[in-house]
Automatic annotation (TrEMBL):
It comes from the Eukaryota. It comes from Eleginops maclovinus. InterPro entries: RNaseH-like_sf, ZnF_BED_domain_contain. This is Uncharacterized protein. PANTHER family: ZINC FINGER BED DOMAIN-CONTAINING PROTEIN 1-LIKE, ZINC FINGER BED DOMAIN-CONTAINING PROTEIN 4.
Length: 137
């Protein structure tokens, strides 16, 4: 793994157009402690001429080190919905590993059946066409 951190800004223009820009991906070889991350975040904002007092909110994952860094900086923080959703789905799938593994295996088998056989794909298209024609879908 390569130790890095990225800084992306999101903003809305006067005509309510939403924009996102990745300003930088910074190599951070030092341990990713709260102090190290905080210094790099503060430095990145300064490098881009952004005033931290105009910062509305910073969104990150839930790692203790980054949460502590933001808290130490005194910046308004919001945890990442996408990260939390990923965690919830992962934990939900982990609770029934046998059932999940079987379902994923069946899906892979189904995909492979139609990916590897032009005859099966032809039969599937024919069956789908017939079902649509007879309105049984």
């Amino acid at each position: 793994m390569i130790p890095y951190m990225s800084l992306t800004i999101h903003y809305i223009t006067a005509d309510w157009t939403r924009h996102s820009k990745c300003l930088e991906t910074r190599y951070v070889p030092d341990d990713h402690t709260a102090d190290t991350l905080g210094e790099n975040l503060k430095s990145a904002l300064a490098d881009w001429g952004l005033d931290e007092h105009k910062l509305v909110c910073i969104t990150t994952g839930n790692g203790a080190n980054i949460v502590a860094a933001i808290r130490n900086l005194g910046w308004p923080w919001l945890n990442c919905f996408g990260h939390n959703l990923h965690l919830a789905v992962s934990h939900g799938l982990d609770s029934d590993k046998d059932g999940t593994a079987r379902a994923i295996g069946l899906c892979k088998s189904l995909v492979n059946t139609f990916s590897l056989s032009w005859i099966k794909r032809r039969e599937l298209r024919k069956a789908q066409s017939e079902a649509i024609s007879s309105n049984t879908v």
